Amino acid sequence: MVCQRLIMLTTAIFINLVVSSIVVAQQKPPHIVFVVADDLGFNDVSFRADDMHTPNIDRMAREGIILNSSYVQPLCSPSRSAWMSGFFPFHTGLQHDAMHGWQKAYLPGNLTTLPEVLKSRGYAAHAVGKWHLGFCNLKYTPTYRGFDSFLGYYMAMEDYYNHTIFTEHTEKIIRAHNKDQPLFLYLPFQSVHEPLEVPQIYIDKYCSHIGNTSRRIKCGMVAVLDEAFGNITSLLSTLGYMDNILLIFTTDNGGPVPFAGNNWPLRGSKHTIWEGGTRGTAFVWSNNLFSKTGYTNDGMMHAVDWFPTIIEASGKKFDEYKIDGMSQWDTIRHNTPSPREEFVYNIDTMANMFAIRHGDYKLIHGNTGGLDDWYPVPRVDGLQEEEVAPPPPSGPFRLFNIKEDPEERKDLTETQQDILNQMKTRLDAWRATEVPANYPKNDPAANPAKWGGAWSSGWC
Predict the structure, then answer these.
(1) Is 209 annotated in the active site?
(2) Side-chain-facing half-sphere of 372: CA atoms under 13 Å
(3) Which Pfam families does this UniProt record tie to the protein (predicted)?
């Protein structure tokens, strides 16, 4: 009898230890890799566009969850500020244009950044690529805003070919890291931002079928991005990181039509608040964190949501203070409805540009950013006039039902007066919270001639 009780007790202890170890394993914070494809258009990946070559991106997107209603800002710096802070850019003064090297502009220093929160939870945090959130003083640069290391550039783009070194440096970080510590890798590539340039081998191998010269080069640039993405994810898999990882892939704005980016069938381009400028290509992938994969999620999501979503994925909800972002973690991991019913495309009094989304409806007021047409994939050199439908005339307000009309072809301002008035009221409420844009005049103190011929910190 004593022996039987001893066996039962031993068995119970063993089961308890096994269950406890499983719980601990499940609670272990995941590695988080946040990949940004600069200026990648809605129609610049081969799971949407038959002229592109992105097999690695396609595979991960289809195995994971394609985020079909993931919105970003019309430009670089504003989107990056939203990711890093969880605030709409018009609440941080970064709603007007991208930052330029001559300006005393930066992500406000009083904001807690995403890597700072993750580091407080035990993560190592590294950034490789494009910063574009200020550098006039070292305190605004990545290693002073939460990252352990940074290799990259501070402004919008570089005129030298950097894609290989960014990939190799990322691989070096992965190899050197102790996998027992959770890793946050922020990889904002320059790809596929202009200048339009790529080694000829990529054009010859993947893009010779394209008749338009600029689009052919863009195709090669996208292929390089896909190769880099494939190399990095392959290494992560080889070294065992993929067993517990959250992989995020997104663009920062729509594709720039003048530089062969394409957002077809959506309207507009980078710089605009049309869907083509703000509805981004995005997906998430994980081997162990999602209850359902291999599908497209249409839930509404905005760039500001990544801040609380990533933080909750690390183990605990963000509740230190109120932000604009809403955690989409349950939406992503359990396919529950998105908590978001409304977001602001932009509020920029300086540019007279205003747009909001509430439910299915979108209201635009004032300037749209230009490039108002619908731009198909260019097949030959020179844009054919008959390929572009002229935009219909419109008044100061434009109202669209995005669910029924995602291409923004039917303005409802004349037929939906009640909804128009409701949307105007909502827009006015948001406008009342706008922080004036921090878009200073050029400062001669920034002149590279004063800093050994290089753009440098230390002048503000």
Answers:
(1) no
(2) 13
(3) Sulfatase
